[in-house]
Write a structure and sequence with these properties.
Blueprint (H helix, E strand, L loop, with lengths): L11 E4 L2 E12 L5 E9 L5 E7 L5 E2 L2 E12 L2 E6 L5 E4 L1 H4 L11 E7 L2 E6 L3 E9 L12 E6 L4 E5 L7 E5 L4 E6 L1
Length: 186
C-alpha cells in the first residue's frame, strides 16, 4: 500500500478498480491537520485525467502494470487487432484505448503493450519511429537559408512539417509524442 507521500509523478495506482498514472502532484500540510496530496491522475484505460485529493490517512493500492510484446495485425471498425507472439492468441484494443498512437502503427510490427493484471489496456509506442515521405512539395533552391518547413505526408498517412530539403521517397525519423520531425535517416 502507498502512503500519500508516495504519490509522485509517474506512480501507477489503482483507484475505483481502474489503473491510473499520476501526472501532477502537490503536497500541503496545515497546522493541526494532517497532510493532503492533491493529484491529477490519468486513467490508463480511457486516457481521462481526473483531479483527486487524498487525505493523510488514506491508503492507496499500487497498480499491477506489466509490459508484454505483441504484434500489430490490422486496424478496422472494431479497433486495433494484436497477436501474442508466444501463445498466438489474438485480441483487440479500442480506438479510445490506443489514442493518437494508432496513426503511427504499422501492420506486422511488434509493440510493447501495457497490461493491467491480465488485460491489455494500452500501447507503449516508441518515442522515435522511421517513416518514408510519400508526398511533399519540392524545395526551391535558396529557400533553406532561413530553415523553413513544409508539409509532408508520410507512408502511415500522417502529415507533419519537415525542413525544405526533404524530398519524396526519403526516410525520416519522427517523434511520436510531439508529431515533429527529428532527423533524416540515411
Amino acid at each position: 500500500m502507498y502512503e500519500i507521500t508516495d504519490l509522485k509523478v509517474g506512480t501507477t495506482i489503482t483507484y475505483e478498480e481502474d489503473p491510473y498514472k499520476i501526472v501532477w502532484n502537490q503536497f500541503s500540510k496545515t497546522g493541526r491537520q494532517g497532510g493532503v496530496m492533491a493529484v491529477k491522475m490519468k486513467n490508463l484505460r480511457t486516457g481521462q485525467v481526473l483531479p483527486k485529493t487524498f487525505q493523510g490517512a488514506d491508503k492507496i493500492e499500487p497498480a499491477e502494470i506489466s509490459m508484454r510484446k505483441a504484434q500489430f495485425l490490422y486496424h478496422d471498425a472494431d479497433g486495433f487487432h494484436f497477436m501474442n507472439g508466444e501463445t498466438y492468441d489474438q485480441f483487440s484494443l479500442t480506438e479510445k484505448a490506443v489514442g493518437e498512437a494508432g496513426q503511427f502503427m504499422k501492420d506486422g510490427e511488434d509493440y510493447h503493450l501495457m497490461y493491467f493484471g491480465e488485460d491489455p489496456i494500452n500501447v507503449n509506442m516508441p518515442v522515435k519511429m522511421e517513416f518514408t515521405v510519400v508526398e511533399t512539395v519540392p524545395g526551391v533552391k535558396g529557400d533553406t537559408a532561413q530553415g523553413g518547413t513544409k508539409p509532408a505526408k508520410l507512408d502511415c498517412g500522417v502529415s507533419v512539417n519537415v525542413p525544405l530539403f526533404i524530398d519524396e521517397g526519403q526516410k525520416i525519423r519522427i517523434n511520436t509524442d510531439t508529431m515533429e520531425y527529428v532527423e533524416r535517416v540515411n
